[in-house]
Amino acid sequence: MRALNSNINTQTADFQENYTQMLALVEKLEGHLEESRFQGKAKHIEKARAKGKLLARERIELLLDQDSPFFELLPLAGMENKGGFGAGGTNVSGIGLVAGKLCMINSNVGTRKGGSVDYATTFKALRIGQITEENRLPSINLVESGGANLQDQAKIFNYGGETFRQITRRSKMGLTTISVVFGNATAGGAYVPGMSDFAIFQKQAAKVFLAGPPLVKMATNEIATDEELGGAEMHSSVSGVSDYLAEDELDGIRLAREIMEFVHVEKPHFVPSKNIQAPKYSSDELLGVVPADIKKAFDVRQLIMRISDGSEFSEFKPNYGSSLVTGWMHIHGYKVGVIANNGVIFSESANKGAQFIQLSNKNHIPILFIQNTTGYMVGKAYEEGGIIKNGAKLINAVSNSEVPHLTLMVGSSYGAGNYGMCGRSYHPRFLFAYPNSKIGVMGSEQMAGVMEIIQRSSAKAAGVPYDEKQAEMLKMMLMSEAEKKSSAWHSTSELWDDGLLDPRETRNYLGFSLAVVYNAPIKGADGYGVFRM
After folding, report:
1. Angle at Cα 428 formed by Cα 28 and Cα 514, nearest 5°?
2. In this structure, what DSSP letter does residue 169 have?
């Protein structure tokens, strides 16, 4: 395979300006990630320490194999939600190795709002369940939660039950769930260990019941203690809800690791050789290669050569449909197809992308979509040239492709270009974004301009004067709101991606994602919907 050669001069003013601007965004990202690691107020942590409790992230660290990475997902979910519990909610979720096996791990932050589940945490849990099932992973829940946040119950009740359905569906599929309960697991939360394949309760700490003493007293007039209703000893010796009685937290984690030793998982579909070449060019250069200002164009091959093994790339149809770059490469030894934007999508680009998706499916190769596009080309000539039917071919191919998809947003993601390039609604296995990226129907300036044209036409048709001053104020307000709602910070808060990346970490995140998707057999689609020719 041919190695790509860079023509980037890292000493130019343009490169240095890009580098400085992107670094500022990365530093802002790091600040938000630090906020997401907040595990509760000092008084709550001190109270937990006094009871001999570990914190959520400490439990994960002890559970993981020595030197295992932890691939954290959705760390900024709910970051901008007013009235929510902050970035990441009350659950730390990600993938790591336990007993040498890739596992999804969910750890309740019991020292943050008592581990209660708010709106963002609910949808984070649902997305984590989807990733677990699609990639056929066993999962381990480290449980300490007060259940649903009552102020959010009207918004989350109908969705929360899906998490229990996911657990039992995975069990049917042969995907094991282990729950270790360190504290409260009340009301609906009691069904997390109740639906699990294995349940471990910590002695004199786990409290698992559908209704606590106050509600039981109200409902039945019966007086009972926490321990009588749902203590670990009772559930381990009387109800049978618990399978293992752990002496303390460390013993509970030890038991989970011991169970994972014996849990059956399929052998990885593919394990790369250890002879893997690093890219020829430094990942640090990505800060200067990818512009923080999405209006600036760049050749996506410059990104590709900084994440692919040996900077090698086998490009498909390089001289046709040039606004879409397609080809194959390896990342950390894993083979992957690439469909990457180099601008607006023309008919030729869409046709090329659809053909490439068919070829990747025929050869059972996952596909990485690298998004940076304002969408499909518009205008009289392009409509006459069939941009709708050709754009539909690409969307058809993406929709019916059955190999795993990964999506990386590195700039614009506007209009139907988001769909054709496998946006969130097209269910990529993982979707990551850079902090400069923007997503929406169209750019803020275009949106404001369209609205201005419509308002001017309406005023003319009504025979009334067009108020230029008021219109300019409305235009600025619209642009400001559109900018905010299209930002990477807003999209990650709304769970439209699985995490924002420092561009320098792109190769590592994609490599780990590919290790996860190659964990299960990969088989391409045998057919597609009707292609309008």
Report:
1. 80
2. H
